Amino acid sequence: MIPSTLEYTKARSIDEALAAVAAGARPLAGGMSLLPMMRLRLASPGAVVDLGGVPELVGVCEDGDELAVGAMTTHRAIANDPLIARHCHVVAQAAAGVGSMTIRNRGTIGGSLAHADPHGDLPAAILAAGGAVIVRGPGGERRVDVGDLITSYLTTTIADDELITQVRLPKDAAQSAYAKFHRRAIDWSIIGVGVSIGADGVRAAATGVGERPMRLTGFESVLDGGGSLEAAIARAAEGLSPTADLDGSTEYKQHLVGVLAARAYAEASSR
Ligand SMILES: Cc1cc2nc3c(=O)[nH]c(=O)nc-3n(C[C@H](O)[C@H](O)[C@H](O)COP(=O)(O)OP(=O)(O)OC[C@H]3O[C@@H](n4cnc5c(N)ncnc54)[C@H](O)[C@@H]3O)c2cc1C
């Protein structure tokens, strides 16, 4: 299906992009989720502003005890970035497992977080790492923890006139890993779990378990309290009730949460 008529502009700076979204344009990042939605008429923006010409939105650098990642940095660049591999392995590993090479070449970290798909890998991996986003709008800049960013299915706390400009990743998430279960190599996660073992303890988060990525608080508290991995696995899906569908029953998906949490924890521990 051909998308409906729309106005297209390409921003050259963050300010130009902000002016366009303030005037009602929808941000266009890699287009890997927005364009399919437009083709299906699930989204019909009257105007889009392409963020692909804004150099400030691309790249990874160190900033104190964090990595600053431009919102337009692609999954492929993230998967191959030496700083992310060294300091925040869980995010590099999740990015490497996103869809196909085509999707990874175009899709971006900012687009993935803003789109907030309940089966998205990056949001769960960044939640496990304890990351945050920098959001810029007419009122200036604000920082939002990823745990407070996604509120439900495809819904975030970002206003229509705001943009994610940066993703902030902690540098103390080196001992971390992401485990994903899917049918074929290019598929979305049925369930995915990220685990990070840092100075403050274990953080674990899952995708595919509800309307948004969720922390595995039962799993975390057992391990932080010195309990066994077996006991932690038994509590991994505590409080989670993944929807039964063609991929499996609620009970099967709860079982997968435990299996993947154990895999990710074992890999993170060995790093
Ligand atoms: C076949 C296929 C397989 C896929 N498999 C996976 C998978 O296995 N795992 C996975 O996690 N994802 C998967 N994806 C999704 C992929 O990760 C997308 O890249 C991602 O969901 C959206 O990123 P994007 O840069 O393409 O954003 P776009 O599609 O351009 O935008 C998505 C939404 O975010 C908004 N937006 C974009 N950037 C910003 C910004 N900086 N500030 C504010 N709002 C913004 C847009 O307005 C739009 O609403 C798949 C997609 C496809 C088509």
**CATH class type of the largest domain:** Alpha Beta
Biggest pleated-sheet summary: 5 strands, antiparallel
Structural class: alpha+beta
Helix content: 25-40%
Q: If classified by CATH, what would the architecture of the largest domain be?
A: 2-Layer Sandwich
Question: Which spans have pLDDT < 50 for at least 5 consecutive residues?
Answer: none
Number of domains: 3
What's the N-to-C terminus distance?
A: 47 Å
Stated plainly, the CATH topology of the largest domain is called Uridine Diphospho-n-acetylenolpyruvylglucosamine Reductase, domain 3
Overall pLDDT? 96
Strand content: 25-35%
DSSP strand count: 14
Explain how this protein is built.
There is one protein chain. The protein is an alpha+beta fold and 271 residues long. It folds into 3 domains: 7-49; 64-170, 2-Layer Sandwich (Uridine Diphospho-n-acetylenolpyruvylglucosamine Reductase, domain 3); 176-269, 2-Layer Sandwich (Enolase-like, domain 1). The chain has helices at residues 14-22, 34-39, 75-80, 82-87, 89-96, 101-106, 109-115, 121-129, 146-149, 217-224, 229-234, 250-269, and strands spanning 7-10, 26-28, 47-50, 60-63, 66-70, 132-137, 140-145, 150-152, 155-156, 163-170, 176-181, 191-198, 201-207, 214-215. A 5-stranded antiparallel sheet has the order 4-5-10-6-7. α2 links the parallel β2 (26-28) and β3. α5 packs antiparallel against α8 (121-129). Residues 26-34, 36, 51, 71, 98-99, 103, 106-108, 110-112, 114-115, 117, 120-122, 158, 163-164, 188 line the site of flavin-adenine dinucleotide (FAD).
